Amino acid sequence: MSSALKITLILSLLLSAGCHAAGTAPRKTLAPFASEQALSSYLQQLQARQAALQREQQKLQRATAQYSAQYTAAAPAPVAPMAAKAVPAASAEAAESITNVQTAGVDEGGIVKLHGKHLVMLRRGKLFTVQVGGNALQPVAVLDAFAPGSDPSGSWYDEMLIDGDTVVVIGYSYSRGGTEIGLFDIAADGKLAYRSTYHLRSNDYYSSRNYASRLIGSKLVFYSPLSLNLRRGDPFGGFPALRRWRPDVVPSDFKRIAPATRIYRTDEEPEVGAGLTLHTVTVCDLAQRDMRCEATAVMGPQGRVFYVSGESVFVWTTRRGRDSGVFRIPLDGSAPSALKVAGAPVDQFSFLESVDGHLNVLLRAEGQGDAMWDGAQGRGDMALLRVPLTSFSDGRDSAPASSYKPLPGGGGYGLQNRYVGAYLLYGNPGNGGGRQADQAWPRQPLYAVHWADAGSVQALSLPHGVERIEALGNDAVVIGAQGKDLHFSSIRLGAQASVATRYIRADAAQGESRSHGFFYKPQAQDEGMIGLPILGADERPDLNRPAASVLYLRNSGLQLTELGALAARPGPSPDDGCRASCVDWYGNARPLFLQGRVFALLGYELVEGALKVGQIREVRRISYAPIASTVR
Fold first, then answer.
1. For the chain, what is the mean pLDDT?
2. How many angstroms separate the CA atoms of 293 and 271, rounded?
3. Which residues fall within 8 angstroms of residue 162, CB to CB, at 6 or more apart?
4. Are 312 and 337 in contact, with CB atoms under 8 Å apart?
């Protein structure tokens, strides 16, 4: 059965079950558990069903093993099977904003932020500040990104946010089993001081595409999946909880932050034998020195993709070989709502909560969420789901078949997608992406569709793969490889989408794949500067070293011209005595534009450039690396 037929069949079954079409669904929300006793009784029932299933599976396994042993003894020698086809393994890969965020007003955890006159960097388990105000370029402070006296081994410190004079470091501790939140004070002179550390119970949040944390005003927002083990132990031991770290901290210091009355479920029964996850949204108030957090959780299957708008967190869950569900969890603590859906989004960029009160989602027929490198997976026919937010209800209703617009293109490995202005753009890297010299691969078009009216879809021919899609104001740029060259195609997004111009950087490849690696600085109407880390075409990405350089282009009416590059100093990296988070999973190179100045963050180097005769020239550079002999 084709993927399109699967989606049609799923929708037909849901609609025939009496689900309401969008626009007629009552405005209802999910129901919480009435009490701790009600929640406990429900979990006991699930435990009993899981235990019974486990016994049946063990019986079946024993019977199968016995039959297999008897058959093997009596059967003739088998004919040698045909060799299986080898499947190639997929490669893994404030005042002035300096973060390339998806949604305006929703800051995302990153590795570099701006505080007044200082840049603040998070790298290899330490915080650093560098003064850039007043035309300075001077290292100021360095401090461990973890609590004094704590053991950082088994911990990864990945993301940073700044609210007022509070620096927030977000990490994951495998030794302590949860998200670690470190709070630090930063003074006007750039000096840093440790304040406190909190542990938020969670599973590993890592995604090669998404970020764990968001900041909206003074609200620190986390999405955390929590897997419940119903086959052994106390399931409440996996419920949302928070504790403040101290040297003698113990597991019992965790305090629940989601009572039964803030835990919700739909009418869908959990898949027997499959994992059950508490999809948890935690909101922490940073306006007080002692951080206070509250959580809301919805029970659902394991697969997930989440997207944060200005007012809600949307969590898309997928069941094994079955239909999906999308939860809308408001950030104000009010009750969540849900909708039954089909297919799976690629990543957070598949979502747009539009100002006309709709949720728009690009879907593939099959997918398993965006945990780790799963966002690059997925397959099958594609569609655009567009539903009014008012159609969300208590989870019994389904998005009608008319809400899905079939789209061309296969949802293959590494699919890229982005909403830019009135358009949804998407495309695949293609088999020739990366550093392959052979250019005889089938090129993939860039698809452009008006998301609001679901009009006709355009297929724009490109001579390169689609590895990155970014906004240039109301227009876009698509970046991808052709053989050993890196192409930048500017896309005009007017009444029709069209390819404007192309810039080709010979013998080059992207040095960063995450969205934060790119930055576009508008300077006037249809004018601005692009920055992107790059490598030489024969260099391999290495999480332990910076990109070779940051390339800068000028956009002038979608004409792209090279301004030059700021390069890292060749040679080995300095010995920093790293004790924690010693791999740059989130990258370590960024283009920065500050008050008319141009910088390149390249590992432990901060390089400043200036435009001279239409070219970027290096002005000066500093190293802010700690000296190994001074590191404990």
1. 83
2. 31
3. 94, 113, 114, 115, 120, 168, 186
4. no
Burial of 127 (0-12, 13-18, 19+ CB in 10 A): buried
Q: 66 or 513, which is more confident?
A: 513
Q: Is residue 518 scored above 90 in pLDDT?
A: yes
CB 499 within 8 A of CB 476: no
Cα-to-chain-centroid distance, residue 604: 25
Cβ atoms of 205 and 298 within 8 Å: the answer is no
Rounded Cα gap, residues 491 and 475, in angstroms: 6
**Cβ–Cβ < 8 Å for 409, 380:** no
Distances in Å between the alpha carbon of 91 and those of 103, 371, 431?
29, 16, 12
- The 3-class secondary structure across 61-103, one letter per residue, is HHHHHHHHHHHHHHCCCCCCCCCCCCCCCCCCCCCCCCCCCCC
- Find the Cα–Cα–Cα–Cα dihedral 81, 85, 86, 88, rounded to 10°: -160
Report the C-alpha gap between 136 and 113 in whole angstroms: 17
Of the candidates 111, 87, 85, 107, the residue with the CA atom closest to the CA atom of residue 96: 107
Chain-centre distance of CA 609, in angstroms? 31
The answer for residues whose C-beta is within 8 angstroms of residue 631's C-beta and 6 or more apart is 576, 577, 579
Using DSSP, state whether 25 is helix, strand or coil: coil
Q: What's the confidence (pLDDT) of residue 548?
A: 84
Three-state secondary-structure class, residue 135: helix
Longest CA–CA separation in the chain, Å: 86
> Is pLDDT at 440 greater than 70 in this prediction?
no
- Provide the token pair at 158: 């990945």
pLDDT of 94 reads: 42
Structure confidence at residue 39 (pLDDT) = 92
The kind and range of the H/E element at 304 are strand 303-308
Q: How confident is the model over 150-177, as pLDDT tens digits?
A: 889 888 999 999 999 999 999 998 877 6
Given a contact cutoff of 8 angstroms between Cβ atoms, the answer to whether 169 and 272 are in contact is no
Distance CA 126, CA 626 (A): 9
